[in-house]
Design goal:
By secondary structure, the protein is an alpha/beta fold. It folds into 2 domains: 244 residues, Metal-dependent hydrolases (TIM Barrel, Alpha-Beta Barrel), CATH 3.20.20.140; 201 residues, no CATH class. The protein is built from 16 helices and 33 strands. The longest helix has 20 residues. The chain is elongated and about 90 Å long.
């Protein structure tokens, strides 16, 4: 009797029933649950468009051809039927959106699967935080696949909120949603054969290992790849990406909110190289998701840059699926998951409908399915533990300041520069006339009272200050400003709200977003968050900044594994020699 079956036996019997049903439907013996008619099927294997029906049953594609028997139909008028898009490397926390709100943002843009590295959450709340993200991803009309954070902290120069022992890495590697080890940022430790890194690589040796090798070349790059690295999304120049491709890496062309590499790297794509190239957003904020899109936006930019549209879509589907070893995903063929997009225009990549497991889940830019409830654990709403920050901690002896950070617009790499700061008495102070502003990093996890202070060129503020609890990768508080008073006020605002972003000028709070989930995210709907984020950016620009994404740029100032200079709560870092400045 059915009630005597174990859960595994019941699942096996269901699988067998679905298997037999799909075989019968494919032969025209039963009606399909859904047939899409009148469209042109984008075949990623042959790179052609084929006029045919697509029959779908029990969440899978059963055939492409003619299928007169159908329970329901979608009738098209020559639109393109393509596999739904895959973001090969992203940190969803950077969107500022809790996982269900992230799905609301990207599914209408045709995204069907993301490979996310939750190392932002790992740095703040460890495995418990990632478990909460995993739980929040259950039941979404979007596949969420994880890579296991490999570097918590990213280096010894950062102060995270949580520990990340090898046992947690080993546990996460057993999850069925886990597809690999996340980006290995601690390059010096890899090259030194560090014991901890050896343990991590040994645990992940049967998985893909994601790379992180900005501006690497020569024997260090060769040794890094030989350690077991499989991919790279950090290339900034064409020569750099070509060298990595020649050395066997899968190249992920990145186009995020703060990291824009597509234009420079697109010439790498040729008839010979394209199977080893895919797309990734890495970090894309809520405003960009709302205004320009997700992978669909990357595709539009690539096509406008001269890439063949069918080839571009293959790179955003099949290539990514093959690299991450995703079974029966990324193509339209019998037996594959029915995760599809209907495109009004191939060249403009206008997404009319998104299907997930054979159901329409978004149409004309709006989600059409209800999402499961995903309550946020209380401990993730209480992650700011800040010691009092005093003005004296922000003061710098002018005699000790010789170097600073220079921002490169549109990139997350920086320059280490020699500076001559403005002086007030014997103290170095911000110099808005020469765009050299005081920058502060405050430890916020364990109330240590540790504060790092330096100077940055490139924000352009003429007055005021901005602060954020998003500060890669340890996510302490990072702030930059013209006056110490405004810097302190901005820090206080984001701390009091248990995380967020703030703009302050002359003691007045001009804009503020609360990010109470780990100090990184909110469960507010996308339109609200995107509008607030845009308002924040405009306020910063009114204070003089010319940066497209000032908060995105600010967030990366403390990432201690990106050349050439950074600032953490431990001070200014010279990453040209990987020593403290």
């Amino acid at each position: 009797m059915a009630e005597d079956l174990t859960p595994d036996q019941a699942l096996t019997n269901m699988w067998k029933w679905q298997w037999r049903r799909r075989i019968a439907v494919a032969q025209g013996l039963y009606e399909a649950e859904l047939v899409i008619r009148g469209g042109r099927v984008l075949n990623v294997f042959t790179e052609e468009l084929i006029e045919a029906d697509v029959a779908i049953d029990t969440g899978r594609i059963v055939g492409i051809g003619k299928f007169p028997l159908a329970r329901t139909e979608i009738v098209l008028n020559g639109e393109i039927i393509a596999p739904s898009f895959i973001d090969a490397h992203i940190h969803t926390e950077a969107s500022l959106l809790w996982m269900p709100r992230f799905a609301e943002a990207v599914v209408p843009h045709g995204t069907g699967l993301i490979v996310t590295d939750p190392h932002e959450m790992a740095n703040v709340a460890g495995l418990d935080g990632i478990r909460a993200m995993r739980s929040a991803a259950e039941g979404l009309p979007l596949h969420v696949r994880f890579t296991v954070p490999s570097c918590v902290p990213a280096s010894q120069h950062e102060s995270p909120g949580a520990e990340w022992p090898i046992t947690d890495i080993e546990e996460m590697l057993t999850w069925p949603e886990t597809v690999g080890l996340g980006e290995m940022m601690n390059v010096p430790a890899v090259l030194a054969g560090d014991q901890n890194i050896a343990d991590i690589f040994a645990a992940a040796r049967h998985h893909r290992i994601d790379g992180h090798s900005p501006m690497m070349a020569g024997s260090p790059l060769t040794a890094y790849i030989a350690a077991g690295i499989d991919s790279d999304h950090e290339s900034v120049t064409l020569d750099e990406a070509r060298d990595k491709l020649r050395n066997g890496l899968m190249i992920m062309i990145r186009e995020g909110s703060s990291e824009k590499n597509l234009h420079e790297l697109l010439p790498l794509v040729s008839d010979h190289t394209y199977p080893r190239i895919c797309f990734a957003s890495d970090d894309r904020d809520c405003h960009d998701l709302a205004e320009v899109g997700h992978v669909d936006d990357i595709l539009r930019l690539a096509i406008a840059g001269g890439l063949d549209p069918i080839r571009a879509i293959r790179m955003a589907t099949w290539n990514a699926a093959q690299y991450w070893q995703l079974e029966k995903i990324g193509a339209i063929a019998p037996g594959y998951e029915a995760n599809l997009v209907i495109l009004d225009s191939l060249e403009e990549v206008r997404v009319k409908q998104t299907l997930f497991h054979g159901r329409v889940v978004a149409e004309n830019g709006q989600l059409t399915t209800e999402l499961p409830e995903s309550p946020v654990p209380l401990e993730l709403l209480q992650t700011i533990h800040l010691a009092p920050v005093r003005r004296s901690q922000l003061q710098i002896d002018a005699a000790n300041v010789t170097r600073g950070i220079e921002i490169i617009p549109g990139q997350i790499v920086t320059k280490l520069i020699h500076i001559t700061p403005a002086v007030d008495g014997d103290r170095a102070v911000s110099d808005s006339a020469n765009d050299l502003l005081k920058t502060v990093s405050v430890e916020r996890h364990h109330a240590t009272g540790r504060v790092g202070v330096g100077f940055t060129r490139g924000f352009g503020l003429k007055r005021g200050a901005i602060a954020s609890t998003i500060a890669h990768d340890a996510h302490n508080i990072i702030a930059v400003g013209v006056s110490d008073e405004d810097i302190l006020a901005a820090i206080a605002i984001v701390a009091e709200s248990q995380g967020g972003l703030a703009v302050v000028a002359d003691g007045e709070v001009l804009a503020h977003i609360s990010l109470p989930i780990a100090g990184l995210m909110t469960d507010e709907p996308l339109p609200n968050v995107a509008s607030a984020y845009d308002a924040m950016r405009k306020e910063v620009q009114r204070l003089g900044s010319t940066l497209h994404d000032p908060f995105g740029t600010l967030a990366f100032l403390s990432l201690s594994v990106i050349p050439e200079a950074r600032l953490t709560d431990r001070g200014l870092l010279d990453l040209t020699n990987e020593n403290d400045a």
